[in-house]
Amino acid sequence: MTRVFTASPATTDSYALGEGPVWDAARQRLLWVDIVAGTVHEGRLDTAAGTIIATGSWSFAGTVGAVAVAATGELLVAEQTTLTMVDTHGRRTHLAEVLPPGVRSRLNDGAVDPAGRFLVGTLAQDGRRGRERLVRLEETGCVALDTDLTLSNGLAWSPSGEVFYSIDTIPGIVWARTYDAATGSVGERRVVLDIDDGLPDGLCVDAAGNLWIAIWGRGRIECRSPAGEFLARVAVDAPHTTSVTFAGPGLDVLVVTTATEELGPDQLARHPASGRLFTARVDARGLPPSYWQPLERWGT
Fold first, then answer.
1. Cβ neighbours of residue 263 under 8 Å, at least 6 residues apart?
2. Fewer CB within 10 Å: C terminus or N terminus of the chain?
3. Quick one: how far is CA 65 from the chain centroid?
4. Which residues span the domain enclosing 147?
5. CA-based angle 194:200:202, to the nearest 5?
6. Total number of domains constituting the chain
7. Among candidate residues 164, 175, 101, the one with its CA nearest the CA of residue 136
């Protein structure tokens, strides 16, 4: 039987394209981005009230697809085409140019693997299909894992770290493949889910190994077993649910980002909480966050 939960608005501010929530356990803060505003936000989670109080932000010239954090507090920011490190004093260092000049694409969702490497995907901004990339940042630069995507999105690993999940939003596919964090080697992709009711966006994995997937256009989070079985649904009063993570000292608060982008006046009137962050208790716990491991050549 599919269980049903309901998420509640957790912020007072709304965001055009809220995305990529990351729990930073060492500093007990939540990080997230507003992609189109080019902003990284941080906030404090009140687990008792289920609310999130914004405490700071960093702005960038173009879009910001994702943020990751190091154990020592540095941020890794996926700007429109580049990866940038922000140290704890706010100083910025350019790390890598992921996209070549003139390509009508931008960086999108990213995540840190169990060994501390950062992965990030791209999306086309001119209608191209099947030519976008998923790359991993290495000492030698960016190494491509996939080159045939249309809208690279949610990335997550199983509790053991031996299975890597990734989403291609436009065809609605959730992929899985074997993953060796020690060597970085990956196996062949296989389809876990082919979603045709809404578009799969961001995802996370809980401590039991189940997938929590944000469904853009449908105002819900789906919980699926590793085999694809529908286990639970989280109703969110915002049509464009974008991503999800577990947060809080017990990793037992589900945080959902949403967007106002592509919603008309009538939809916004019916769903006035669109663009805000939401929280829910779903009788599950998340995995401890993986911290990005800066490389020595970047001086950290």
1. 239, 240, 271, 274
2. N
3. 9
4. 3-293
5. 135
6. 1
7. 164
Instruction: Name which of 188, 83, 103 is nearest 146 in CA terms.
Output: 188
Tokens of 154: 């949610």
In whole angstroms, what is the distance from residue 261 CA to residue 127 CA? 18
Q: Kindly state whether residue 288 falls inside one of the protein's structural domains.
A: yes
Q: Whole-angstrom Cα distance, residue 166 to residue 111?
A: 10
3 state DSSP class of 92: strand
- pLDDT tens-digit readout, 151-209: 999 999 999 999 999 999 999 999 999 999 999 999 999 999 999 999 999 999 999 99
Does residue 47 lie in a domain region? yes
Alpha carbons 235 and 204: distance in angstroms, whole number: 17
Token reading at 48: 């008792």
Place of tokens 């990956």: 186
Map residue 171 onto helix, strand or coil: coil
* Residue whose pair of structure tokens reads 């990339």 in the numeric block: 133
Residue 171 identity:
P
What's the mean per-residue pLDDT of the chain?
Answer: 96
Return the pLDDT at 296. 62
Give the H or E element holding residue 267: helix 265-270
- Report the C-alpha gap between 168 and 174 in whole angstroms: 7
pTM score above 0.85: yes
Among 63, 71, 67, 58, smallest CA distance to 26 is for 71
